[in-house]
Every structure is written in C-alpha cells, then in structure tokens.
Design the sequence.
C-alpha cells in the first residue's frame, strides 16, 4: 500500500473517531439533560395534582390551579397521577405490584421525600405531600415524549451529520494527501529522468528550509558525487590509453629508428635522452591520472580538518612563486570579514592547496605571467576566492568542455599542459561541498570563482 493511501486512511480514521466521540458525547449529554428535565416536569405535575386533588377546602385557589393546569399543561402520553395515603406501619407492596414498580420506590419516597423510576419508556416521579387531609405519596407518571420524538430526531440528525462529516473528511484527507505528496511525486518523476546518459540533470531546488528542500539538496549533492565518480571512471581508461600511447609511441619509435643500424655514441646518448624525457612525461601523466581517479572515487577517505583560506592562499602564492619566479600574484584582502572565523572551512589542506595552485598557476601561465589578481571574502554561508587573469581566455564554444579530463582549449597549443588540472580542481571543490564558476572572454582573460561553505568554527 502506498504511503499516500496510508496517510489518507490514517487521517480519515482519526477524523471519523473524533466525530463519533463528539457525537456520542452530544447524544448522551442531551439525553441525560432531557431525563432530568422530564423528572422535574413530572415533579411539578405531581405537586400541582396534589394541590388540586388533596387541598379541597381552599376553594377558589384550587380552581385557579386546576384551570391553569388544564390551560397550560400539555397532556403527556399515558400521563397519570396517583395518590396513596400514608398510614403508620402500612407498606406499599400491594400498590407497587399493581403499578408494576418496585416497593423500594415507595420506601425511598418515605425516607427521602422524593423518588424516581423508569421502566420500558415509562417514567415515575413520586413526592411525599402533606395536605390538610393527611400525608400522601403522590406519583406522577408518563411516557417520555423526548424518547418518543426528540431522541429519534436527534439520532437521525447525528447519523446524517456523521455521514456528511465522513464524506467531507474523506475529501479533505484525499486533498491533503495529494497536496503533501505532490512535491514527492515531482521529485520521483524528476529522478526517473536521470540516468547514466544525463547525469548533469538536477532536481529543482527551492529556497525554503523544509524537509523536502533538504532532501532535494541532499539528492543533488549525491548526484554531484556520482557524476564526478562516473565521469572519472568512464573516461579514465580511454583517456589514460590515449595519453599514455603518445609517449610510448615516441619511445618505441625512437628505439626502432636507433636500432635500425649501428650509430655513433653521441646518437645513442641523444636517443636515450629523448626516451628518458618521454618516460618522465609518461610518469607524470600516470601520477596525475591516478590522483584524478582517487579524488573522484574515494572522497570519504580524505581526512578533513579546519583550514583557514586566507593563510592557505599565502602558502599557495609562496609555492607558485618559488616554482616559477616569473609569477606575479596580487592578493586582495580588502573584502576580508571582520570575523576571522568566517574564513575557516572544513577541508583537506593538501587537496585545497592543490586546487588553488592549479587555478592560480594556470592563470599565471595563460596570461604570460602578467599580474593575476586574487581576492578573498566571506559571507555568513561561504568563503569565496576569485582569481582573475589577463590572459588568452577560453573560446565560448569550448567552455562546456573545460572539465573534461585531457581537454585543452584550441588556443593553448603553445602552452604546456595535460588538461587534468581543472577537472582535478573541480573534483576537489566538490569533495568540499563547494562550487567553482568559470567565466572567460577571449583575449581579455578568465575569472574563476571558488565558493566553499564556512566551517562554523569559533576562534
């Protein structure tokens, strides 16, 4: 059974239970009140009958009471008044048997002054009345007209109300279940469209902070990791084969040509030098490929700790300038936040150092070592680093391929590189739940913005 159906049934059951409980409470309350009210009515009639029948010598007064009784007292179904004189030592067993009520009814009247009894829809109310002729037990009895008419009407009304409320509740439960699960169905439909052929698709995210928005963000983050792993895994073998074949072909070709005849010592030395150079290229490419694969496959194995990004940037600058003294890097700290804790992220310092080094060293290389501006700032949620160069830029039509391993833009032929740095950097940034944004204009330069979530560390 689907959760939507279960939810609807649970809501409907809850509504129906509440309706039945309230209906039962209303019915019992009204019934009890009507019984009490009917007994009071019988008591008034017993007193009135006693005054009319037993106080005979008050003349005009009794006549007035009798007239009022006949004029305003509606005749009750099977209404009857009975008068029993109280004699010392006499029981009312015979009278009780005649009427069909227990003798305890009379005993209660004698002891308490009043008594009530009901049987088969007949209600009896007795009072102890002292007249000038002596003391009497006056019993007024009648069928409860509420039982005959009002109670039945109340039951019909409640049954109709329960049925109407049940139908109305069913409609509410159905609408509520559909309304609540509509975003889930939308997520499910969107997920069904995502396959290995279109892993770039993502679920639509909202700005709310409810559970569904969190589920969407979590799923999109999972897709990021899967896409990274899938792309790396999917391209690893083909790219590795292609890239490793070039130096191997050079090595084999150089060896074949050299061995085709006997050569001078200088020629052997030159050949071995070429082979060594190609072998070193092969070694560097192999290490880069393995590192790229590791960052794509096994991000959870990396050790994360708090990293202060501004300090890391100075380390990166020092490293790059040490490797290539022509590098000209300007770090702009004017956007630093007042609270230094906003510059701390949860991450792996070595990986982040590698990612920033790749971007900044590329900026230096492809701008022919003109000044590269690096800015750092922070908001409450993210630390952002912006690297802006004045280099050759990237053609618009090739921007979508910049994260493909071994892809190199068409205007980079005179620059040395393997096309692994940017996809490797993207993998590292994704491992840190961050974001990398690249924009570029041909012959004007490239701007790379890296956003990393603040680690919420205190000083």
Sequence:
């Amino acid at each position: 059974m689907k959760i939507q159906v279960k939810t609807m049934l649970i809501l409907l059951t809850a509504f129906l239970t509440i309706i039945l409980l309230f209906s039962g409470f209303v019915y019992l309350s009204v019934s009890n009140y009507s019984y009490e009210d009917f007994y009071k009515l019988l008591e008034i009639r017993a007193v009135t009958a006693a005054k009319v029948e037993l106080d005979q010598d008050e003349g005009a007064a009794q006549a007035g009471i009798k007239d009022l009784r006949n004029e305003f007292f509606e005749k009750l179904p099977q209404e009857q008044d009975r008068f029993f004189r109280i004699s010392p030592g006499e029981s009312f067993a015979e009278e009780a048997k005649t009427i069909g009520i227990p003798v305890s009814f009379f005993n209660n009247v004698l002891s308490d002054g009043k008594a009530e009894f009901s049987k088969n829809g007949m209600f009896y109310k007795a009072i102890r009345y002292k007249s000038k002729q002596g003391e009497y037990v006056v019993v007024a009895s009648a069928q409860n007209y509420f039982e005959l008419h009002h109670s039945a009407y109340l039951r019909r009304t409640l049954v109709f109300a329960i049925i109407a409320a049940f139908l109305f509740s069913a409609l509410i439960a159905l609408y509520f279940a559909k309304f609540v699960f509509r975003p889930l169905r939308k997520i499910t439909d969107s997920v069904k469209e995502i396959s290995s052929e279109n892993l770039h698709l993502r679920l639509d995210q909202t700005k709310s902070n409810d559970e569904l928005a969190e589920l969407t963000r979590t799923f999109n983050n999972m897709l990021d990791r899967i896409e990274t792993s899938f792309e790396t895994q999917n391209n690893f073998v083909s790219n590795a084969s292609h890239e490793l074949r070039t130096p191997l072909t050079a090595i084999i070709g150089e060896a074949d040509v050299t061995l085709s005849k006997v050569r001078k010592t200088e020629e052997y030395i030159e050949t071995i030098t070429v082979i060594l150079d190609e072998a070193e290229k092969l070694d560097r490419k192999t290490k880069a490929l393995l590192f790229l694969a590791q960052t794509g496959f096994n991000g959870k194995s990396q050790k994360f700790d708090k990293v202060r990004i501004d300090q890391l940037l100075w380390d990166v600058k020092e490293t790059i300038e040490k490797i290539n003294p022509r590098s000209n890097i300007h770090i702009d700290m004017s956007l630093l936040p007042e609270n230094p804790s906003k510059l701390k992220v949860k991450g792996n310092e070595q990986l982040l150092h590698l990612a920033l080094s790749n971007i900044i060293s590329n900026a230096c290389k492809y701008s022919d070592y003109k000044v590269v501006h690096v800015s750092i700032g922070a908001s409450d949620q993210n630390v952002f680093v912006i690297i802006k160069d004045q280099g050759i830029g990237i053609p618009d039509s090739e921007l979508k391929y910049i994260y493909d391993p071994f892809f190199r833009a068409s205007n980079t032929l005179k620059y040395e590189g393997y096309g692994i740095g940017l996809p490797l950097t993207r993998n590292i940034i994704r491992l840190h739940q961050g974001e990398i944004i690249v924009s570029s204009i041909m012959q004007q330069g490239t701007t790379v913005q890296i956003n990393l979530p603040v680690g919420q560390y205190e000083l």
